[in-house]
Amino acid sequence: MADVLNILVIDTHDSKLLGIADASTYTSGPASPSISITVPGFDPIVLPFVPNDFNIFNSSTLGLSAVGVSDPLPDGIYYLTYSVAPALTTFVNKTIMRVDRIQEKFDNAFMKLDMMECDLMIKQQSKVELNSIYYFIQGSIAAANNCAVATSNKLYMQANLMLDNFIRNNCGCSGTNYLNNFRQYGTM
Question: Which of 10, 40, 140, 161 would disulfide-bridge 19, Cβ 3.0–4.6 Å?
Fold first, then answer.
């Protein structure tokens, strides 16, 4: 029986951390376990990997920032290769779309919507817009999971553009919406 390698990318709910769990089965202790991580816009980095454990990486361990500094990791397509000796024959590849930063932006927009004083129709339209943005984000993740990198990036950029426009327009709530739509008709 041979080693069967598998890794799981676990959501840390933290834009500064990448969590990868080992879900492999080994016939004996793995020799020279390592993981190659390609962060969008950077060269691959090979790091030690602790088998049968949950491994956490940050910007410092990934070589993106100075030692001891933990900056948010970029969103985008990450390529992961976990291997054990002999590396040429025993490895597993994963392609993931990381969306933690856009998810934080989406969450902030969503919370603003619930706290704003919008009239019912504008609030409903804003929820429709946020749902559309959410589907683009989820579509980006699904495309990356199926190795459709170009589609994943396209959906991500569209979601980000829509989200920026939504935030810039402040969900259409200017404080004068009620006055413009109802006061002029004598319903006040």
Answer: 10
